[in-house]
Amino acid sequence: MNAPFKTVLFGFAFSPTLRANILETSRIAHFFGAKLILLHVGEKTAKKEARIKDILSIMEHQELEVSIQWKTGKPDEVLLATCQESNIDLLILGAMQHENLYQFYVGSIARKLTRKVCCSVLLLIKPSEERVPCQHVVVNGLEDEDTPLAISNACYVSHALGAKRLTIVEEIGQKEVAVEITDDKSLKKATIQKERLKHREDSRVRKILKSVPGEHLENLKVKTQSIFGKHGYSIGHYAEVIRADLLVMNAPKKIGLLDRIFPHDIEYILSDLPTDLLIVRKTS
Questions:
Q1: Same domain, 16 and 92
Q2: 7 and 94 both lie in a single domain
Q3: Among 61, 96, 131, where does a domain finish?
Q4: pLDDT tens digit sequence for 23-55
Q5: Fewer CB within 10 Å, N- or C-terminus of the chain?
Q6: 88 and 145, same structural domain?
Q7: In the listed set 82, 103, 131, which residue is the last one of a domain according to the structure?
Protein backbone atom coordinates (compact mmCIF):
# COMPACT_ATOMS: atom_id res chain seq x y z
CA MET A 1 0.00 0.00 0.00
CA ASN A 2 2.51 2.59 -1.12
CA ALA A 3 -0.14 5.00 -2.45
CA PRO A 4 -3.47 4.54 -0.65
CA PHE A 5 -5.21 7.55 -2.23
CA LYS A 6 -5.23 7.22 -6.02
CA THR A 7 -8.56 8.94 -6.70
CA VAL A 8 -9.67 11.95 -4.67
CA LEU A 9 -13.16 13.48 -4.69
CA PHE A 10 -13.80 17.03 -3.45
CA GLY A 11 -17.43 17.85 -2.74
CA PHE A 12 -17.73 21.62 -2.96
CA ALA A 13 -20.25 24.37 -2.39
CA PHE A 14 -20.00 27.92 -3.70
CA SER A 15 -18.91 29.31 -0.34
CA PRO A 16 -16.48 32.13 0.51
CA THR A 17 -13.73 29.53 0.97
CA LEU A 18 -14.24 27.85 -2.42
CA ARG A 19 -11.06 29.23 -3.98
CA ALA A 20 -8.85 28.27 -1.03
CA ASN A 21 -10.48 24.83 -0.79
CA ILE A 22 -9.92 23.97 -4.45
CA LEU A 23 -6.34 25.21 -4.45
CA GLU A 24 -5.61 23.30 -1.24
CA THR A 25 -7.31 20.16 -2.52
CA SER A 26 -5.41 20.27 -5.81
CA ARG A 27 -2.11 20.47 -3.90
CA ILE A 28 -3.07 17.50 -1.76
CA ALA A 29 -4.03 15.43 -4.82
CA HIS A 30 -0.69 16.36 -6.44
CA PHE A 31 1.33 15.29 -3.40
CA PHE A 32 -0.60 12.01 -3.25
CA GLY A 33 -0.06 11.39 -6.98
CA ALA A 34 -3.83 11.11 -7.35
CA LYS A 35 -6.40 12.20 -9.90
CA LEU A 36 -8.94 14.74 -8.66
CA ILE A 37 -12.69 14.84 -9.20
CA LEU A 38 -14.53 18.05 -8.28
CA LEU A 39 -18.23 17.48 -7.58
CA HIS A 40 -20.93 20.10 -7.03
CA VAL A 41 -24.35 18.93 -5.93
CA GLY A 42 -26.54 21.63 -7.40
CA GLU A 43 -27.48 23.42 -10.57
CA LYS A 44 -24.82 23.90 -13.24
CA THR A 45 -24.71 27.41 -14.68
CA ALA A 46 -22.31 29.18 -17.01
CA LYS A 47 -21.36 31.55 -14.19
CA LYS A 48 -20.53 28.72 -11.79
CA GLU A 49 -18.58 26.81 -14.43
CA ALA A 50 -16.56 29.90 -15.33
CA ARG A 51 -15.68 30.46 -11.68
CA ILE A 52 -14.37 26.92 -11.26
CA LYS A 53 -12.31 27.09 -14.45
CA ASP A 54 -10.90 30.44 -13.35
CA ILE A 55 -9.70 28.91 -10.08
CA LEU A 56 -8.23 25.87 -11.83
CA SER A 57 -6.29 28.14 -14.19
CA ILE A 58 -4.19 29.42 -11.28
CA MET A 59 -3.55 26.16 -9.41
CA GLU A 60 0.12 25.36 -8.87
CA HIS A 61 0.21 21.95 -10.52
CA GLN A 62 -1.29 22.29 -13.99
CA GLU A 63 -0.33 18.72 -14.89
CA LEU A 64 -2.81 17.38 -12.33
CA GLU A 65 -5.62 15.27 -13.82
CA VAL A 66 -8.85 17.07 -12.86
CA SER A 67 -12.46 16.42 -13.86
CA ILE A 68 -15.59 18.37 -12.86
CA GLN A 69 -18.98 16.78 -12.20
CA TRP A 70 -22.38 18.43 -11.63
CA LYS A 71 -25.19 16.41 -10.06
CA THR A 72 -28.54 17.10 -8.44
CA GLY A 73 -30.11 15.50 -5.39
CA LYS A 74 -29.49 15.34 -1.66
CA PRO A 75 -25.79 16.14 -1.01
CA ASP A 76 -25.10 13.20 1.30
CA GLU A 77 -26.85 10.67 -0.97
CA VAL A 78 -25.11 11.96 -4.12
CA LEU A 79 -21.68 11.97 -2.48
CA LEU A 80 -22.15 8.47 -1.06
CA ALA A 81 -23.23 7.10 -4.44
CA THR A 82 -20.42 8.87 -6.33
CA CYS A 83 -17.76 7.56 -3.95
CA GLN A 84 -19.04 4.03 -4.53
CA GLU A 85 -19.48 4.31 -8.30
CA SER A 86 -16.17 6.08 -8.97
CA ASN A 87 -14.06 3.94 -6.60
CA ILE A 88 -13.01 6.98 -4.60
CA ASP A 89 -10.17 6.46 -2.12
CA LEU A 90 -10.43 9.81 -0.36
CA LEU A 91 -13.38 12.19 -0.01
CA ILE A 92 -12.41 15.77 0.88
CA LEU A 93 -14.89 18.23 2.37
CA GLY A 94 -14.45 21.84 3.43
CA ALA A 95 -15.48 22.47 7.03
CA MET A 96 -15.99 25.26 9.51
CA GLN A 97 -14.23 24.70 12.81
CA HIS A 98 -17.06 24.91 15.33
CA GLU A 99 -20.32 23.02 15.08
CA ASN A 100 -22.60 26.02 15.56
CA LEU A 101 -21.02 27.55 12.45
CA TYR A 102 -21.22 24.42 10.29
CA GLN A 103 -22.61 24.93 6.81
CA PHE A 104 -23.69 22.68 3.97
CA TYR A 105 -21.56 19.50 4.09
CA VAL A 106 -20.65 19.70 7.75
CA GLY A 107 -22.63 18.88 10.90
CA SER A 108 -25.26 16.17 10.39
CA ILE A 109 -24.22 15.54 6.78
CA ALA A 110 -20.59 15.04 7.78
CA ARG A 111 -21.73 12.55 10.40
CA LYS A 112 -23.76 10.59 7.85
CA LEU A 113 -20.88 10.56 5.39
CA THR A 114 -18.33 9.58 8.01
CA ARG A 115 -20.48 6.66 9.10
CA LYS A 116 -21.60 5.41 5.71
CA VAL A 117 -19.06 6.38 3.04
CA CYS A 118 -16.95 3.59 1.56
CA CYS A 119 -13.65 5.51 1.69
CA SER A 120 -11.49 7.71 3.88
CA VAL A 121 -12.60 11.30 4.57
CA LEU A 122 -10.53 14.47 4.97
CA LEU A 123 -12.18 17.49 6.58
CA LEU A 124 -10.36 20.77 5.90
CA ILE A 125 -10.90 23.61 8.36
CA LYS A 126 -7.99 25.83 7.36
CA PRO A 127 -7.45 25.72 3.58
CA SER A 128 -4.99 28.23 2.18
CA GLU A 129 -4.54 29.70 -1.28
CA GLU A 130 -0.79 29.76 -0.66
CA ARG A 131 0.75 26.56 0.63
CA VAL A 132 1.30 26.29 4.38
CA PRO A 133 3.64 23.30 4.92
CA CYS A 134 2.38 20.49 7.14
CA GLN A 135 4.77 20.12 10.05
CA HIS A 136 3.18 17.86 12.67
CA VAL A 137 0.73 14.98 12.28
CA VAL A 138 -1.05 13.25 15.18
CA VAL A 139 -2.63 9.79 14.83
CA ASN A 140 -4.58 7.61 17.25
CA GLY A 141 -2.80 4.52 18.50
CA LEU A 142 -5.67 2.91 20.40
CA GLU A 143 -5.86 -0.85 20.52
CA ASP A 144 -8.14 -1.66 17.59
CA GLU A 145 -7.97 -3.84 14.49
CA ASP A 146 -8.07 -0.76 12.24
CA THR A 147 -5.29 1.14 14.00
CA PRO A 148 -2.42 -0.35 11.95
CA LEU A 149 -4.06 1.04 8.79
CA ALA A 150 -4.55 4.48 10.40
CA ILE A 151 -0.90 4.60 11.50
CA SER A 152 0.32 3.38 8.11
CA ASN A 153 -1.79 6.03 6.35
CA ALA A 154 -0.54 8.69 8.77
CA CYS A 155 3.06 7.77 7.93
CA TYR A 156 2.29 7.89 4.20
CA VAL A 157 0.55 11.28 4.46
CA SER A 158 3.37 12.68 6.61
CA HIS A 159 5.90 11.57 4.01
CA ALA A 160 3.86 12.84 1.05
CA LEU A 161 3.23 16.26 2.63
CA GLY A 162 6.78 16.61 3.97
CA ALA A 163 5.85 16.68 7.66
CA LYS A 164 8.73 16.49 10.11
CA ARG A 165 6.96 15.00 13.13
CA LEU A 166 4.43 12.24 13.76
CA THR A 167 2.98 11.61 17.21
CA ILE A 168 1.10 8.39 17.89
CA VAL A 169 -1.31 9.02 20.76
CA GLU A 170 -2.27 6.06 22.92
CA GLU A 171 -5.52 6.93 24.70
CA ILE A 172 -5.84 4.85 27.85
CA GLY A 173 -9.14 4.87 29.72
CA GLN A 174 -8.99 5.88 33.39
CA LYS A 175 -10.84 2.67 34.24
CA GLU A 176 -7.71 0.71 33.31
CA VAL A 177 -5.98 2.28 36.32
CA ALA A 178 -8.38 0.73 38.82
CA VAL A 179 -6.70 2.13 41.92
CA GLU A 180 -8.38 4.50 44.34
CA ILE A 181 -5.79 7.01 45.51
CA THR A 182 -6.13 7.62 49.26
CA ASP A 183 -2.51 7.78 50.45
CA ASP A 184 1.12 7.65 49.30
CA LYS A 185 1.01 3.87 48.95
CA SER A 186 -2.02 3.89 46.64
CA LEU A 187 -0.53 6.81 44.67
CA LYS A 188 2.65 4.79 44.11
CA LYS A 189 0.58 1.78 43.04
CA ALA A 190 -1.38 3.90 40.54
CA THR A 191 1.83 5.38 39.15
CA ILE A 192 3.36 1.93 38.65
CA GLN A 193 0.17 0.74 36.96
CA LYS A 194 0.24 3.71 34.57
CA GLU A 195 3.86 3.04 33.67
CA ARG A 196 3.07 -0.59 32.93
CA LEU A 197 0.18 0.41 30.70
CA LYS A 198 2.35 2.95 28.84
CA HIS A 199 5.05 0.32 28.30
CA ARG A 200 2.44 -2.15 26.99
CA GLU A 201 1.02 0.40 24.58
CA ASP A 202 4.46 1.52 23.36
CA SER A 203 5.43 -2.09 22.61
CA ARG A 204 2.24 -2.65 20.63
CA VAL A 205 2.75 0.51 18.56
CA ARG A 206 6.40 -0.33 17.85
CA LYS A 207 5.25 -3.63 16.34
CA ILE A 208 2.85 -1.76 14.05
CA LEU A 209 5.59 0.61 12.89
CA LYS A 210 7.73 -2.34 11.78
CA SER A 211 5.22 -3.03 8.98
CA VAL A 212 5.31 0.56 7.63
CA PRO A 213 7.33 1.00 4.40
CA GLY A 214 10.75 2.40 5.25
CA GLU A 215 10.53 5.29 2.78
CA HIS A 216 7.49 6.65 4.60
CA LEU A 217 9.53 7.02 7.78
CA GLU A 218 12.49 8.81 6.18
CA ASN A 219 13.18 12.24 7.72
CA LEU A 220 10.18 11.72 10.01
CA LYS A 221 10.56 11.97 13.79
CA VAL A 222 8.09 9.50 15.30
CA LYS A 223 7.18 9.48 18.97
CA THR A 224 4.48 7.90 21.13
CA GLN A 225 2.41 9.75 23.72
CA SER A 226 0.21 8.06 26.30
CA ILE A 227 -2.85 10.01 27.47
CA PHE A 228 -5.29 8.95 30.16
CA GLY A 229 -8.87 10.06 29.45
CA LYS A 230 -11.93 9.65 27.22
CA HIS A 231 -11.30 8.24 23.75
CA GLY A 232 -11.76 10.91 21.11
CA TYR A 233 -11.99 13.83 23.50
CA SER A 234 -8.44 13.40 24.85
CA ILE A 235 -6.71 13.12 21.48
CA GLY A 236 -8.70 16.04 20.06
CA HIS A 237 -7.66 18.23 22.98
CA TYR A 238 -4.04 17.07 22.65
CA ALA A 239 -3.96 17.86 18.91
CA GLU A 240 -5.31 21.33 19.63
CA VAL A 241 -2.86 22.08 22.45
CA ILE A 242 0.23 21.13 20.44
CA ARG A 243 -1.18 22.85 17.34
CA ALA A 244 -1.00 19.78 15.11
CA ASP A 245 -1.55 20.39 11.39
CA LEU A 246 -3.44 17.14 10.85
CA LEU A 247 -5.22 14.62 13.08
CA VAL A 248 -5.66 11.06 11.77
CA MET A 249 -8.33 8.79 13.27
CA ASN A 250 -9.88 5.39 12.65
CA ALA A 251 -13.28 5.50 10.98
CA PRO A 252 -16.22 4.92 13.37
CA LYS A 253 -17.53 1.39 13.53
CA LYS A 254 -20.76 0.44 11.82
CA ILE A 255 -22.84 -1.34 14.46
CA GLY A 256 -26.38 -0.61 13.36
CA LEU A 257 -29.00 1.35 15.28
CA LEU A 258 -27.02 1.11 18.50
CA ASP A 259 -24.07 2.96 17.00
CA ARG A 260 -22.46 3.57 20.36
CA ILE A 261 -18.80 3.89 19.39
CA PHE A 262 -19.25 6.91 17.11
CA PRO A 263 -20.69 9.29 19.74
CA HIS A 264 -17.86 8.47 22.14
CA ASP A 265 -14.95 8.90 19.73
CA ILE A 266 -15.24 10.90 16.49
CA GLU A 267 -18.29 12.79 17.78
CA TYR A 268 -16.19 14.77 20.25
CA ILE A 269 -13.84 15.85 17.48
CA LEU A 270 -16.51 16.63 14.86
CA SER A 271 -18.31 18.93 17.29
CA ASP A 272 -15.22 21.14 17.66
CA LEU A 273 -12.55 20.28 15.10
CA PRO A 274 -9.08 20.95 16.54
CA THR A 275 -7.39 20.88 13.13
CA ASP A 276 -7.75 19.24 9.71
CA LEU A 277 -9.09 15.72 10.28
CA LEU A 278 -8.38 12.57 8.23
CA ILE A 279 -10.70 9.67 9.02
CA VAL A 280 -9.23 6.45 7.67
CA ARG A 281 -11.48 3.68 6.43
CA LYS A 282 -10.42 0.30 5.11
CA THR A 283 -11.61 -0.16 1.51
CA SER A 284 -12.55 -3.53 0.09
A1: yes
A2: yes
A3: 131
A4: 999 999 999 999 999 999 999 999 999 999 999
A5: C
A6: no
A7: 131
